[in-house]
């Protein structure tokens, strides 16, 4: 029989004495596994939804008027960009000014902007459920702009003022009719403070008029203001950016759409970390208290073992081994409890609107490294807790331990 | 006094004192002890005479303030705790009045305990010894499932598992009825016939009668050996 076998046999024989500590460890590990599982799942969900979101997989290519050799963003350029490795889509972007004024609106100057399907504005009013993609002759305006309330225009066909180039440096006013199909939150200024959104054909037509060319000539020769190049995975964005720049375009990447997890999930992660620390401390104290108590109850046993020739190190190893066995049992039971806790937590979180989107369908569990690390930590804490009282026990002189011969 | 240099256990001029409530108590004041191989020696004396302390020192369970202890001729004074533990395991066997078996383990595991790491050899030896003390069929029983006499026989088997040169026992029959006492004493005589030195600390007249040598202790000193006819109870 080895020391470890002796420890295991002791735990098996005296399991009632170890029930309290095992239960403590089970609860501790269970709570930690639950918190870590939900947190890890939220991380994965956030990664999928934010890190791998289209906005974060975008390289923005701009028309550089003042850069020698920079290519215009024409139809040919779009084909070049679309053909680059890892590129899944290209979204041309143009912006052109237009004005509107009536009896209720004092006069606003807005910029008709092409809509990026990857970054749509937050809608606060709409005439139909699915606004995007916009149809020809449709616009979405900010609910308010330049001190005017534009919400009254929702659902109406309005006439706007645009500019048409008639000769070099000379333009003239023109009018066009569009329908206001939606309103967006004016706080959304990703495309500029006075942006409005219109369908691609309308923006291109107005831009062509402003340049004094036809729409076909505009896309073939003049080109768009910007192009959003959508990459397949976030990790390929940098490589694609280099390819875009090597091809003679001016490109940059968008900042992450979001840099942090939603508050509730961040709270769960923080809580999980705190619980891990607090419960780890509780487990340590529990291990010390229980091992100390067990040691006091077993002083005679220590004396017997030393009398029959056990070295102090062997007695120490036996006590530590017992705690290691208890630690493994507690950690294993805690893992099961934690899995059940995670399932329950997920059920609760699905009921919270701000968190529901980040809650996975499958049972969340921490990754293997986290899981293994937690189990190892539990065993180490338990063993560490046992070390001091076991050391004290091992140092007892046999004659002190066996008082009654 | 037996001064045989081949003695498996020799204790010479051992002193030991304790402090109790600020007062010094001299428990041993120059005690001598020498066991003869192949003989049962009884150590007798009143309570408080120092028998148990002498036994603890002789068994390397406690240290002496002064004096020497030799086991198989080797002075143990300078030995480290680990060396003393090794010597206890290899050369000494203990039998306690209260049996001191580990209640969580079976009789076989209790017997094999000093043979930790011995694997199958230890298990085989434990079963062999249990058979020798008449408990071969009870190897899988725990101490709580055995009678007092049976528990003491398990303790005797444990004392023999590492084939020691000396077996030390303190009141080994103190908790036994007359039949069990006779059986255990017979075992000790059998152990002595193997060539071991056996020391029994006792108050029992029956134990004294079964001993080859009787040593009396009084006020921390041993009086010269009194040799008895084995089992006859007559002073030689």
Written overview of the protein:
The complex is a heterodimer of chains A (405) and B (236). Chain A is an alpha+beta fold. Chain A has helices at 3-13, 15-51, 75-82, 200-211, 215-222, 237-246, 263-297, 299-307, 312-349, 353-356, 368-394, 398-401, and strands spanning 58-62, 87-93, 95-100, 108-114, 123-126, 138-142, 144-145, 148-149, 157-167, 170-184, 195-198, 226-231, 250-253. In chain A, a hairpin with a 2-residue loop joins strand 9 and strand 10 (170-184). Chain A starts with a helix and ends with a helix. With 236 residues, chain B is of the alpha/beta class. Chain B has a domain at 9-98 and 164-227: Rossmann fold, CATH 3.40.50.300. In chain B, the strands form 2 sheets. In chain B, strands 3, 6, 7, 8, 9, 10 and 11 form a 7-stranded mixed β-sheet that branches. In chain B, strands 2-1-4-5 form a 4-stranded antiparallel β-sheet, with helices on one face. In chain B, 50% of the residues are buried. Classes of the chains: A alpha+beta (405), B alpha/beta (236). The interface between A and B is medium-sized, with 28 and 37 residues. Chain B: Keywords: ATP-binding, Lipoprotein, Nucleotide-binding, Transport. Chain B: Residues 9-236 form the ABC transporter domain.
